[in-house]
Amino acid sequence: MNLDRIKASLKARTSGIKATRWVRFSLVAVIFILWVIWMGNPWLALALFLLFDIYITGYIPFTWWKKSKNKAVKTLMSWVDAIVYALILVYFVFAFLGQNYQIPSSSLEKTLLTGDFLFVNKTVYGPRVPMTIVHFPLVHNTLPILNCKSYLDSPSTGYHRLKGQRSVESGDIVVFNFPAGDTVFSKVSNPDYYTLVKMYGRENLALHSDELGEVIYRPVDRRENYVKRCVGLPGERISIVDGVIHINGEPQAMPESAQFNYFVQTHGQPLSEEYWEGLGVSRDDYSRAWYRPQESDYAAMESLGFTVGRTGLMNPIYLLPLTQKMVESLENDPQINLVFQMPSPMGEFLFPDSQSANWTRSNYGGSNGLWIPKKGVKLKLDSISWPIYERCIRVYENNPDAHLEGNTVYINGEPQSHYRFKMDYYFMMGDNRDNSLDSRYWGFVPEDHVVGTPWRVLISFDKDHGIFDGGIRWNRIFKDANPDKN
Known about the structure:
This protein is an alpha+beta fold. The strands form seven sheets. It has a seven-stranded antiparallel sheet with strand order 1-2-24-5-8-22-23. The chain has a four-stranded antiparallel sheet with strand order 11-10-9-16, with no helix packed on it. It has a four-stranded antiparallel sheet with strand order 13-14-12-15. Helix 2 runs antiparallel to helix 3.
């Protein structure tokens, strides 16, 4: 009898439904079922009954406000209804298909420019199932004005990536969450906590807690977004010799977009902003070196090719990043006296601290190269390997108690001679090699930090110009954001 009543009730509720609502429900149901199959969790299919009620039966009074006689209520709720639907749609698009991203720095010029707004495709490598479930829509990690967290740490889920088109490949431009961004100061998130500790020490930072704020932890998907080029894949050994990347001992072709810092000296006249703009250099990327050497330095400067006047005055010198093509253009310009590549400085805080004392950003990785962890591969654990892979094992792969005693590594209280990695890792670098905070400084990128790859430039703004004075780079709209992969 109860079953007959349910059938009768369903028949009564569906008899007057317009055909358009059935069509809309059918389309939504097909998309939802495909999404459930993609997610690989059949329990999610139970939500199909809720969709059926929303579109067809209407047992749950989601649209109660439509029957209200109060016009103000109907107007307000119609706006709320539209906004909720829009936010749900945006949430699913951003979580599973892709989202917009702004290029904040020049680390990938000339491929991606400062001011580019990109659409990042998450389906290429497969989207991550959201790990931080509750967060304010359209805000990454900090609420504007209030300057507080835009998310709740719990509930949360573990890392799971849906099936994508392919894995990360060498040469891909990749958007990822900054691995070292797990710990930051609440008032100063850049540089990250670890960099500041290296620079100033914990004791000095504690004295400035009022300016820096409290130390906070950010979950993986709430860490700052970075964009770099993948130059090293899991299982490979990477080294850099005189600026050239070597993989497993083999030199790799230098990308046309690769840039290094150079000194450029003219024959006497300074160069205008229009000159540098014509060369493709933005105002923030070049600076004039106001240098007056001591008389004892004259011979050394002249031996490098610089022109030094009798009074110690020097013709204008500029410091800026240049591609090889730009170098050749300057060398053929009669206004230019010298184009000299700036040597990489010693003593930078390079990864890993235990081995990088004699490395520079242009000569990196030592004679054997730096091995990039690969999922399922065992690593021998000892006092040499531990400082390099400690963070991967202890932090990224969630073994917080892992530590080194003497020459023995302990994990979960047990001595371990080897460790099998649970994830793949990548080595990322910027094309602007001397002006990029990348893997040379903070290490490997775990696969669970990978967000996606840029697809197209949506729009691009040139900060050196006003909106109506060349501020919009029209030639970059819908331009391929990863051209080297085609």
